[in-house]
Design brief:
- There is one protein chain.
- The protein is mainly β and 150 residues long.
- It has a single domain, classed as Hypothetical Protein Pfu-838710-001, CATH 2.40.320.
- The chain has 3 helices and 10 strands.
- The chain has helices at 64-71, 115-119, 139-142; strands spanning 2-9, 19-30, 33-39, 42-48, 54-55, 57-62, 75-88, 91-99, 106-111, 127-130.
- A hairpin with a 2-residue loop joins strand 7 and strand 8 (91-99).
- The model has no long low-confidence stretch (mean pLDDT 94).
Length: 150
């Protein structure tokens, strides 16, 4: 089960001290959500169930050849982003700076072990609006946007 909240960012922290990974991902289907992702030198196939803040998520490694074959079948645009990993005890903030069609969008996700913890989370001051319930900010819907309008 994946339990996460999503936020827009109003002010970037100093990112120079954090690790990051470049991500490319595409969606084979949005109902159900079937995603392929290249994360550094790893390739992942993901199924995500229905839901906004809490939903089933199953990930399975695939090889580069399978990724490239499936990449030809993606719906909409590929999503490219740089993800910074920012510790925020006891959680990890995954800060995504999008490029390509979504250039200009900066968003953070925080995963939680329970719905109760998610509901009681106090985000840092540099977070902006929470967009967990706004389907427009789910990557599986963003693939249909021609660009991000800040």
């Amino acid at each position: 089960m994946e339990i996460e909240k999503k936020y827009l960012i109003k002010e970037l922290p100093d990112l120079s001290k954090y690790e990051y990974v470049d991500i490319e991902q595409g969606y084979i289907s949005t109902s159900p959500v079937l995603r392929i992702r290249k994360k550094s030198d790893k390739f992942i196939f993901t199924y995500k169930g229905a839901g906004l803040m809490a939903r089933e998520e199953i990930e399975s490694p695939i090889d580069e050849e399978a990724y490239n074959r499936l990449k030809k079948k993606v719906d909409g645009h590929l999503i490219t982003k740089r993800r910074y990993l920012i510790p925020f005890d006891p959680y990890l903030i995954e800060l995504d700076i999008f490029s390509g069609n979504m250039e200009g969008l900066v968003m953070a996700e925080v995963e939680f072990p329970s719905i109760e913890e998610a509901n009681s989370f106090n985000p840092p001051a540099w977070f902006g609006a929470e967009v967990t319930s706004d389907r427009a900010y789910h990557n599986s819907n963003m693939i249909y946007n021609d660009s991000y309008k800040a």
